[in-house]
Please model this.
Amino acid sequence: MVKDNDTVIKEFNELVNMTAEELTAWLKGDASTSSGWTKDDGSGESVGHESGRKIVEILEKNPDKDPEKYDQEDIDHMRKVVAYNKRHLAQEETAKQNTESKSYKSLKNWGHDAQKT
Model:
């Protein structure tokens, strides 16, 4: 069953616990660019890194997190972010304990710092 937009927005804002500035800084580092699956378009960018850039755009566009200011494209990406983060947080205890793990780095690309409370 597909979640309604209000639920997606709420969960996105709970799971994405990095600011636009924190995520931008992370995305510029080697640890970010070297983790995750590489896209098929020949760019060399990982799927998670691309997602992180989109998350930054969403956060910067709507810093007050006003549900009325998200468009459907934002919500569609937010839905992917929620699904990814929930799935990996449920499966990957390593991400919470080891900042050098691929799981930790990948989750950060998707806007979630597992070391934050």
Q: What stands out?
A: Residues 8 and 40 are 27 Å apart (CA to CA).
